[in-house]
Amino acid sequence: MINVVIADDQKLVRVGFRSILEGLPDITVVGEAQDGGDAVALSRALRPDVVLMDIRMPELDGIQAARQLCADPLLTDLKVIILTTYELDEYIYGALRAGASGFLLKDIDPAELIHAVRVVARGDALIAPSVTRRLIGEFAGRADPQATGPGLETLTDREREVLTLIAEGLSNPEVAVKLVISPATVKTYVSRIIAKLGVRDRAQLVVVAYESGIVTPRRLLC
């Protein structure tokens, strides 16, 4: 069962998302929060699998709340999906840097919301290739190799190939086709890379890839 907390300052939004998710055999909404502070407190108390977090809330916004939750050593399995009305690259970048695993617009279809919760709960990132390319193109100038975490030098050539393709937005099956290996082998590589770099999930691999310069705008846009 995937336990979900919904954090949004608009009750209508919370009720809408709850109505979509309730009744499913593998998802249950365990709590609602009306601001970022409540979201942090509730998540620490209930320890859900996924938090649907509005980006604009009073007291503490969604990015700040996500940063606190993702930095909590007792919540290493918790995944945050940032929700907003606006598809702004600055928001996406901030959400990923805060540790979020996904980014969704509030006007998505019910089926897309359900799919997003399931995808993120199993440890996959929810970042479309087009969004990834825009992010890298706009924010690669912020890259600071000195600020990236340890472990990059321990990656094998094959692991770097896999990391690059993940950063381009490819799924495990797509990486498998590209490298002519099995999806199971790709999954093993991804697990090893996550362990070596000490990150939470695939979304954070994307951040590391472009902030370290492993992936560049020129490579993606050519």
From TrEMBL:
Keyword Protein transport among record annotations: no
Stored PROSITE patterns: HTH_LUXR_1, HTH_LUXR_2, RESPONSE_REGULATORY
Keywords per UniProt: DNA-binding, Phosphoprotein, Transcription, Transcription regulation
Domain annotation HTH luxR-type: ranges: 148-213
Keyword Transcription: yes
Modified residues (4-aspartylphosphate): 54
InterPro entries hit by this protein: CheY-like_superfamily (IPR011006), NreC/VraR/RcsB-like_REC (IPR058245), Sig_transdc_resp-reg_C-effctor (IPR016032), Sig_transdc_resp-reg_receiver (IPR001789), Tscrpt_reg_LuxR_C (IPR000792), WalR-like (IPR039420)
Domain Response regulatory per the UniProt entry, residue ranges: 3-121
PANTHER family the record matches: TRANSCRIPTIONAL REGULATORY PROTEIN NARL-RELATED (PTHR43214:SF24), TWO-COMPONENT RESPONSE REGULATOR (PTHR43214)
Name under which the protein is recorded: Response regulator transcription factor
